[in-house]
């Protein structure tokens, strides 16, 4: 199955939509985009603030489930939803500015 997100064609396998740089994971019935980048000589996964909000309880700051905790452990950083699809060079510049 294939899906189109922000003009990029993705392949659907096991609830993960992916191409070489992006994937989309499903949590709580919603799909969230994830981006793979090489940053600080590491291959890392960057997610959106929307996913972060669904993974953690707003009042306690704790993960909403074991699944949420497992997902969070695979992620390096969260960006604003609109930033996840920036061109690669702009995205890496953004990370350099925000990640200290």
Feature tags:
39% strand, disordered N terminus
What's this model, at a glance?
This protein is α+β, with helices and mostly antiparallel strands and 100 residues long.
Write up this protein:
The chain is globular and about 35 Å long. It has helices at residues 49-55, 66-73, 88-98; strands at residues 2-5, 8-13, 16-18, 22-27, 30-39, 42-48, 77-79. The protein is an alpha+beta fold and 100 residues long.
Helix-strand blueprint:
Blueprint: E1 2-5, E2 8-13, E3 16-18, E4 22-27, E5 30-39, E6 42-48, H1 49-55, H2 66-73, E7 77-79, H3 88-98
Parallel strand pairs: 6-7
Antiparallel strand pairs: 1-2, 2-3, 3-4, 4-5, 5-6
What fraction of the residues are assigned to beta strands by DSSP?
35-45%
Mean pLDDT: 84
Query: What's the SSE pattern?
Result: EEEEEEHHEH
Shape: globular
Q: Label the structural class.
A: alpha+beta
The stretches of 5 or more residues where confidence is low (pLDDT under 50) are 1-19
**N- to C-terminal distance:** 39 Å
Q: Report Rg.
A: 14 Å
How many beta strands in the DSSP annotation?
7
Main β sheet profile:
7 strands, mixed
Placed side by side, the strands forming the largest sheet appear as 1-2-3-4-5-6-7
Q: Report the total helices.
A: 3
């Amino acid at each position: 199955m294939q899906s189109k997100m922000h003009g990029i064609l993705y392949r659907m396998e096991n609830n993960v939509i992916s191409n070489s740089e992006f994937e989309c994971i499903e949590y709580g019935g919603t799909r969230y985009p994830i981006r793979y980048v090489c940053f600080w000589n590491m291959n890392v996964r960057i997610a959106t603030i929307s996913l972060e909000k669904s993974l953690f309880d707003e009042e306690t700051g704790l993960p909403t489930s074991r699944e949420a905790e497992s997902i969070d452990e695979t992620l390096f950083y969260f960006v604003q939803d609109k930033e996840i699809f920036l061109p690669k060079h702009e995205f890496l510049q953004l990370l350099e500015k925000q990640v200290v």
